[in-house]
Structure to design on (1279 residues):
């Protein structure tokens, strides 16, 4: 592939061989400084001379330019291998330099082009094989080249130059494309002095008489003040959408504060500005949408910028500028875009500084960056009395015509469908999804790029034959890849909008720029390849610079209402401060401040200053603009370094994290302290020696002292040793909670064995599998359970409650154990449906329990309730932690862990201080009315599931004397690996905290690079807590336990959990990678919806799942109401709709008496009943006049035959532009001003209809009378 195009080398060779002077030929691709290029090796006929340049010329007439070899090398003979075939490896390296050695232009077109290039690029001599970008060209210079070419009678599009940057190839492309006609803009047919506009006078838009008269009525002076009417340009449509969506303020108003040295100079400036308004159509333009099918722009014949004076009497200096800025602050103030000009001029005298201040806010609907610079230039000429030098003004209608009539909608659509058709989720860095923001939360930082780096950027771009803009676009893609964790990203790029070669485009005034999506896939390709692909993507996009963003969005695989991207790159050319000519600045005037805003939450502008570059980061304050600029600079530096030293290196290997951030991540993620490990049972033996008479174990009305427990366990251990138990022996244990259970566990450990818990509540088939898989030969159980246990042939089953071991030694067995020996094997569910045994070591267990003691300090007067099934690893600390510290271990009766009433009773009877809950059980416990009576509780430990913030807050409010700890950890890493002490911090996620002693936590992307703080990635664990692996599953062990890229010879465990670092260095759990739910293309954390449900007073328990339905994935909520409350599911959905975005509101709410739980007390999602989905999507006709009228409007706008009252505007295919049309129709048909934001807030027909009904009922008699008064006043004005 050359320049992204597939090429058959044989076709070129055939053309070469068809030339009479060529005897043999072979063509190869070779990497040159400007990318892949074709090299031809030819052997001439015996007696002929071969002129390589005329040979290339002939090929150019027979082949497309990209198939013409850049270099032709003449040889006496082609090298052959032993088989007589051409030996391509033996072909000599062409003297590539010679290919770029000067070869003069040939023919008139090449000569004319070389002259233009030489003038525009400031290069003395341009040869026919020179590359526009290698000579320092870029898109602004390309515009200048096109303008100069036009004077020579040569026409071209910028895209052609970008795709054929070699002079000879560009000349060939021009001659081949000469038959393409330039688009003719239809003339404006509204005559001067026209008092009534007719539909046929409008040549760029179709309007009926009714629509025209509504426009005439809206313009001061009526028809006689209307010069032209035409539609909006693509970006104007998007800006108008945001203008109408906002109810207060406007993100697209740019304030500019100017200072003058005298009042006279300020007033002269305004007079000059009014001359510009008279000169340029765009400055006399208003935008109207009421009562029409689509928004239009209306050019007034006359409009004036009126100077407003602000009364600042008595204000101090600092305050005058502040007062002026406050007067036009776009966070609160709007410009009425329905009136021209779309600017204000507010002035005040600043006595303290003795200067005259002018605030000149303008609306982006009529002005872009280039327009502003052109305006300053023109005012400057006017004030210097050099009006005769002003260029002929260009009507903005030409640009609108070009955008509307140039490239067809079908062509735009085909292009974007091919680019974006398979994209199914937004590219949202840091999870920032709100593109309907107002820019008020945005922070801005300006950072000049390091001078040496800037020089290298230009050098590398030139040597690869691409624009510097391409390199910055690739860098931005890398930043997005690192901040989204994906290698296929889409972002908005701001296009100049003047690249179609329309005459005078570079000096026309108006809103030309456009934002369109560019998609960059990184994958495993090298940085050099990625750079070329980026250049190709941008070159292809140029042809579509007038497409609307809405169209591009609709061509993606995302549903309406979901943003395709939320980040923006604006690459713009501006002269540096020193270079600005005096004509660009006015004497006695200075620009004191201006700030451009955008509705994108994550954006960067790159100012190309000719030599250097400046980065302007604009991002939500929570992320920090300086950090954004640091990432961008690191990306640029990394790409430049790779291009210089390792162009084939994968882009993903470039690291963006600064030293400080890497240090922070290491500080947060590595807890290197861990105590020396002695096996747990030895620590318990030590405690038994210290406090032999203290109560160790209580079960119902039985109890054992430390001495008794130790003696029982010792005797059992000696018995087991006699049966052959030794280190690494796995011993099964299947029991209900009892004294024997604890004795059994302790006995197995003392004998040196590892226990394998088998929960008698498990189905027989599962138990049978676990017995077989674990390879146990010995099983301890209780008599009453024996018959329900699956017994395989050679298994020795011992009924512990019937066993007499009194004649065995009561001394501590002295089995030699080290930290690497097995302690226990616990089975966890596997993705294959077969459980897998995690093999845990003594060292890991002791480390975990010692940490817990250091952190939470259990004392001898504490009581710990053991209620977790022992097949769940939380039980491990419940059993052994209290016994290591001399506290009391209280065993809950079998089944009690599922009964809140019994738990409250146990806590009160035994003065329990410490116990564990999985969050769903904690919720059930809180629902029990009497928990406040559990005054002995001092420690509540939560783990096993995500802890909802609302549940945390309830616990802290109701159990004020108890501390709540949220722990996290997989069975594969000795119970828990991170810890967090809960506090009501106002956040909607409860952290899982930082690593415990001896543990390392890393948040990594798909290439095992550290994810930046705030970016979601997979959690990897290292350190002493790691299990040895999975029993008898070496393949799975190798897949989940991987080599640690940060520590030689160490391993990491891949948890499969999605987490991110918070800015305060705590980890936040976001869900399972394999359970991530996507609704309408958006990743959704079900826990967040559950938390909102639980915050509703009438809901006791809640779980949310995603289920497939005929209309795609949808959310279903299962709720258990509070004991004595009635639950109205539709008002519950309404309440959620006020707290969550619409795509997160469950479509169906199912009420249950109780949530089904599994044996571990977690919600059993598989046992949830299937909701009657049909009922939720069945058609229900609209009710009442408003619903019926709205349904009719929807069916027209959306092209639907039938719209029901529960239908969602966006699910039916609606999007932002259709929402604008629909709102306009509502206004025209129902006389109600419907705010666009309401459509997004209430996308269901019945909800929106209710909103409209409320608005129209508010239109009272007084209002109607005042409307009539206003109408009479307006008639006076018109006369």
């Amino acid at each position: 592939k050359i320049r992204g195009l597939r090429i058959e080398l044989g076709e070129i060779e055939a053309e070469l061989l068809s030339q009479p002077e060529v005897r043999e030929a072979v063509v190869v691709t070779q990497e040159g400084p400007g990318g892949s290029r074709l090299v031809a090796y030819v052997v001439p006929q015996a007696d002929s001379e071969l002129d390589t340049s005329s040979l290339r010329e002939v090929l150019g007439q027979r082949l497309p330019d990209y198939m013409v070899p850049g270099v032709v090398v003449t040889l006496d003979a082609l090298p052959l291998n032993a088989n007589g075939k051409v030996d391509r490896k033996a072909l000599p390296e062409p003297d590539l330099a010679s290919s770029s050695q000067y070869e003069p232009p040939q023919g008139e077109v090449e000569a004319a082009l070389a002259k233009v290039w030489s003038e525009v690029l400031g290069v003395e001599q341009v040869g026919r094989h020179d590359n526009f970008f290698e000579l320092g060209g870029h898109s602004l210079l390309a515009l200048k080249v096109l303008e100069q070419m036009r004077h020579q009678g040569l026409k071209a599009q910028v895209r052609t130059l970008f795709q054929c940057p070699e002079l000879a190839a560009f000349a060939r492309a021009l001659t081949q494309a000469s038959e393409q006609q330039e688009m003719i803009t239809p003339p404006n047919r509204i005559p001067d002095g026209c008092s009534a506009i007719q539909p046929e006078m409008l040549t760029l838009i179709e309007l009926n008489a009714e629509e025209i008269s509504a426009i005439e009525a809206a313009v001061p002076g009526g028809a006689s003040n209307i010069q032209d009417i035409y539609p909006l340009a693509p970006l104007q449509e998007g800006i108008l959408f945001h203008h109408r969506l906002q109810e207060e303020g406007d993100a697209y108003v740019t304030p500019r504060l100017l200072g003058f040295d005298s009042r006279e100079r300020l007033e002269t400036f305004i007079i000059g500005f009014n001359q510009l308004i008279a000169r340029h159509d765009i400055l006399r333009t208003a935008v109207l949408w009421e009562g029409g099918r689509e928004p239009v722009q209306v050019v007034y014949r006359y409009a004036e910028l009126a100077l407003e004076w602000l009364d600042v009497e008595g204000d101090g200096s600092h305050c005058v500028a502040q007062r002026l800025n406050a007067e036009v602050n776009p966070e609160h103030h709007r410009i009425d875009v329905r009136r021209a000009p779309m600017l204000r001029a507010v002035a005040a005298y600043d006595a303290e500084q003795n200067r005259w201040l002018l605030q000149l806010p303008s609306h982006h609907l009529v002005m872009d960056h280039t327009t502003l610079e052109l305006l300053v230039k023109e005012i400057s000429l006017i004030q210097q009395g050099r009006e005769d030098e002003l260029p002929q003004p260009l009507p903005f209608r030409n640009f609108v015509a070009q955008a509307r009539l140039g490239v067809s909608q079908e062509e735009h659509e085909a292009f974007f469908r091919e680019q974006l058709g398979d994209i199914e989720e937004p590219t949202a860095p840091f999870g920032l999804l709100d593109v309907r923001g107002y820019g008020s939360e945005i922070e801005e930082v300006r950072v000049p790029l390091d001078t040496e780096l800037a020089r290298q950027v230009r050098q590398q771009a030139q040597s690869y034959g691409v624009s510097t803009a391409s390199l910055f676009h690739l860098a931005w893609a890398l930043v997005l890849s690192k901040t989204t964790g994906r290698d296929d990203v889409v972002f908005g790029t701001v296009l100049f909008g003047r690249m179609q070669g329309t005459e005078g485009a570079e000096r026309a005034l108006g809103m030309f720029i456009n934002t369109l999506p560019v998609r960059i896939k990184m994958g495993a390709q090298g940085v050099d390849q990625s750079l070329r692909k980026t250049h190709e993507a941008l070159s292809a996009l140029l042809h579509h610079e007038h497409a609307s963003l809405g169209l591009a969005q609709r061509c993606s695989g995302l549903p309406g209402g979901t943003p395709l991207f939320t980040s923006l790159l604006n690459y713009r050319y501006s002269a540096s401060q020193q270079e600005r000519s005096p004509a660009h600045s006015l004497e006695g005037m200075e620009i004191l401040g201006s700030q451009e805003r955008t509705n994108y939450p994550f954006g960067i502008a790159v100012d190309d200053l000719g030599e250097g570059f400046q980065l302007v980061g604009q991002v939500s304050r929570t992320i920090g603009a300086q950090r954004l600029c640091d990432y961008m600079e690191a990306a640029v530096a990394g790409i430049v370094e790779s291009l210089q030293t390792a162009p084939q290196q994968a882009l993903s290997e470039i690291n963006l994290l600064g030293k400080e951030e890497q240090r922070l991540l290491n500080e947060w993620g590595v807890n290197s302290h861990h105590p020396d490990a002695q096996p747990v049972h030895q620590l318990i033996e030590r405690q038994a020696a210290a406090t032999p008479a203290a109560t160790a174990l209580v079960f119902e009305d039985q109890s054992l002292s430390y001495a008794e427990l130790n003696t029982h366990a010792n005797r059992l251990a000696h018995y087991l040793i006699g049966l052959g138990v030794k280190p690494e022996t796995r011993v099964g244990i299947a029991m209900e909670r009892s004294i024997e259970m604890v004795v059994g566990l302790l006995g197995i450990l003392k004998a040196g064995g590892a226990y394998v818990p088998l929960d008698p509540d498990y189905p027989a088939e599962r138990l049978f599998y676990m017995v077989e898989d674990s390879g146990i030969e010995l099983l301890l159980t209780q008599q009453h359970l024996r018959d329900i246990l699956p017994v395989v042939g050679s298994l020795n089953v011992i009924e512990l409650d019937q066993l007499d071991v009194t004649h065995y030694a009561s001394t501590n067995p002295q089995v030699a154990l080290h930290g690497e020996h097995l302690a226990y094997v616990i089975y966890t569910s596997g993705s294959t449906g077969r459980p897998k045994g995690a093999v845990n070591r003594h060292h890991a267990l002791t480390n975990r329990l010692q940490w817990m003691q250091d952190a939470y300090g259990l004392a001898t007067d504490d009581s710990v309730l053991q209620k977790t099934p022992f097949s769940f690893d939380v039980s491990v600390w419940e059993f052994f932690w209290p016994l290591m510290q001399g506290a009391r271990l209280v065993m809950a009766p079998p089944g009690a862990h599922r009964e809140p009433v019994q738990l409250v009773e146990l806590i009160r009877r035994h003065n329990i201080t410490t116990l564990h809950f999985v969050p769903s059980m904690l919720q059930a416990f809180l629902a029990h009315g009497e928990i406040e009576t559990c005054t002995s509780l001092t420690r509540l430990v939560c783990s096993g599931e995500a802890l909802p913030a609302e549940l945390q807050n309830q616990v802290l409010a109701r159990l004020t004397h108890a501390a709540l700890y949220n722990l996290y950890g997989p069975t594969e890493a000795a119970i828990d690996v991170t810890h967090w002490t809960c506090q009501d911090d106002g956040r909607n996620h409860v952290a899982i905290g930082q690593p415990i002693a001896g543990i390392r936590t890393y948040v990594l992307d798909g290439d095992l690079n550290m994810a930046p703080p705030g970016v979601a990635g997979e959690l990897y664990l290292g350190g002493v807590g790691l299990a040895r692996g999975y029993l008898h599953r070496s393949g799975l062990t190798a897949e989940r336990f991987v080599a640690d890229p940060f520590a030689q010879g160490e391993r990491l465990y891949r948890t499969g959990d999605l987490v991110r670092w918070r800015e305060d260095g705590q980890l936040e759990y976001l869900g399972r990678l394999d359970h991530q739910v996507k609704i309408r293309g958006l990743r959704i954390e079900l826990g967040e919806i559950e938390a909102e449900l639980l915050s509703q007073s009438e809901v006791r328990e809640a779980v949310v799942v995603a289920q497939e339905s005929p209309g795609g994935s949808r959310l279903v909520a299962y709720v258990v109401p509070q004991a004595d409350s009635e639950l109205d599911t539709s008002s519950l959905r309404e309440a959620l709709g006020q707290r969550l975005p619409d795509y997160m509101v469950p479509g169906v709410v199912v009420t249950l008496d109780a949530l089904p739980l599994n044996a571990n007390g977690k919600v059993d999602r598989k046992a949830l009943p299937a909701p009657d989905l049909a009922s939720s999507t069945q058609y229900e006709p609209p009710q009442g006049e408003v619903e019926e009228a709205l349904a009719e409007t929807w069916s027209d706008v959306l092209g639907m035959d039938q719209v029901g009252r529960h239908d969602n505007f966006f699910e039916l295919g609606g999007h932002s532009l259709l929402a604008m049309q629909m709102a306009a129709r509502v206004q025209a048909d129902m006389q109600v001003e419907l705010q666009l934001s309401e459509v997004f807030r209430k996308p269901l027909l019945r909800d929106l209809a209710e909103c409209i009904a409320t608005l129209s009922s508010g239109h009272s008699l007084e209002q109607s009378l005042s409307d009539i008064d206003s109408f009479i006043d307006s008639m006076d004005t018109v006369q």
Summary: DSSP finds 38 helices and 45 strands in the chain. Residues 1084-1171 form a domain with the GMP Synthetase; Chain A, domain 3 fold (CATH 3.30.300.30).
